[in-house]
Design goal:
alpha+beta; 32% helix; globular
Length: 135
């Protein structure tokens, strides 16, 4: 997975936030977290959705039975950065719940039906994380 992510990260940075392949035309950001166990910096490419006051990202892990590592990293330290286009933005992460989660998640499944496939593959509720500007 690391090699795959490294290629997307390099393409993202070389092309001002644009990539081809399966992510061509999709809103993509690079999420910077700190490893919860290692304390090491981590960068993960992921699709996002613009929401009021920030961005939503989805801990889908392609429908795997467990959440992705980056999700646990931001639970341990919600202060994150994101590269969006050519900008690097300081953000604070929080997990959406209730109606807010359902509205964001529903819109993502409509816009990108692959997320509905991920939901069908797993018994866990896929977390929706809202990234808001740091104070």
């Amino acid at each position: 997975m690391s090699d795959w992510n490294d290629k997307i990260i390099a393409e993202f940075r070389a092309n001002g936030g644009q990539v081809g392949g399966q992510f061509a035309g999709a809103p993509l950001l690079l999420l910077h977290t700190v490893g919860a166990k290692t304390g090491q910096p981590r960068v993960n490419p992921m699709m996002y959705q613009s929401v009021d006051g920030g961005y939503a990202v989805f801990a889908s892990k392609a429908g795997a039975p467990s959440n992705p590592d980056w999700y646990y990293n931001l639970l341990a330290d919600p202060k994150v950065q994101a590269e969006i286009g050519t900008e690097k933005i300081e953000l604070v992460a929080r997990v959406a719940a209730g109606d807010e989660r359902e509205e964001i998640w529903g819109a993502q499944k409509v816009a990108y039906p692959g997320f509905a496939d991920y939901e069908r593959k797993t018994s866990r509720q896929i977390p929706v994380v809202v990234l808001e500007p740091a104070p």
